[in-house]
């Protein structure tokens, strides 16, 4: 099953834009905002089996507002 179909992302907690789940270097997931560039931290995975839980963890951080703003101080 497609991992991306199992992950529900809410709108960006900073600007309300669309969030996008991204896989980086086939070793971690993070979520970033297409509008303002805010992002969650990277959640590493070491095997195919850990992939889904890593994606879910990244989505959970995003959905609970634990994101890093690309515009600190604003
Ligand atoms: Zn945003």
Q: Please provide the count of β strands.
A: 3
Report the biggest beta sheet as strand number plus sense, adding barrel if it closes: 3 strands, antiparallel
| Portion of residues within helices | 10-25%
Spatial order of strands in the largest sheet: 1-2-3
Estimate the mean pLDDT confidence. 94
How much of the sequence lies in strands comes to 15-25%
Order of helices and strands: EEEH
Q: Using only CA atoms, what is the Rg?
A: 12 Å
Helical segment tally?
Answer: 1
Q: By helix and strand content, what is the structural category?
A: alpha+beta
Bound molecules: zinc ion
Q: What global shape is seen?
A: globular
Poorly predicted residue ranges: none
C-alpha end-to-end distance:
40 Å
Short account of what is shown:
With 74 residues, the protein is of the alpha+beta class. The protein is 22% helix and 19% strand.
Topology:
Elements: E1 19-24, E2 28-33, E3 43-44, H1 48-63
Antiparallel strand pairs: 1-2, 2-3
Bound molecules: zinc ion (ZN).
